[in-house]
Specification:
single chain, 5-stranded parallel sheet, two-stranded antiparallel ribbon, 12% strand, membrane, iron-sulfur, Aldolase_TIM, 4 iron, 4 sulfur cluster binding
Amino acid sequence: YGKTTAIITNGWCLTEEYLTPFKGWLDWVTISLDSAIPEVHAKLGRGFRNGEKPLTNEHYLRASEAISKAGMKLKISTVVTKLNKDEDMSEFIRDLNPCRWKIFQCLYIEGENDGRVDEFLITKDELQEFLKRHEKLTNDGIKMYASTEDTKNGYACITPAGCFLDDGENIHKYSRPILEVGVDEAWKDIDYKPENFRARGGMYDWKATQGCSMGGVSSRDIEDIGIAPITTEKKEKNQTRKVSTRDKQQPAVPWWNASAIFIPAVLFVALLVSIIIGRL
């Protein structure tokens, strides 16, 4: 149907048997993976359920192979906290061989992690040290992107309840229901900045049939996380100039201001889920 589909998971059910029915239907699989040390990963609440033992690194490697066999692309999402900020995950990430590695700075979000996040927060400098330690992975073709406190308001999505959701100033802001007030009115309820979306690397062609290359951006699909690629200081300055030039060439209008796009998109997702369930 010309759409790009993706899931985000802790990886528990990612086996070849599980993924086979979704072959041809699912383009991307994102695994939340915060550490190459299973004990640290478990302390961060990842990779286990119902009190069972945490998943092993071997499980994630088998999952990576299963994703590849199913013709899907792999992303890894990592939240950098005080527990893993000094870790070197290079070898493990290289073995997993994701197309993209998304790295989050642990941040305080009002109403989400109040009173529980202080022991995990890190500074900008600590995040930069983590990024620098891993930037050699770009030589292996792994695209690394970081989401920090400087890239807020560069992300928006539609919730299952049919509301827009942004990632604003330390709080997640929800719009009124789209189907009740319309796209334009609901869009006014959130604070989304197209320049932050572009600056964080949100524009790229992520069709599963076109490999992992970032060259020749032609799609405007909205990505889930990330900013500009990790590069040297000189390249970062060049990247900034390119973004500024592109900004001047494009009209400053919201990306999602057309009802003809969003309401059919919601209906399409419902249709797709029905078809997949029918096939199962």
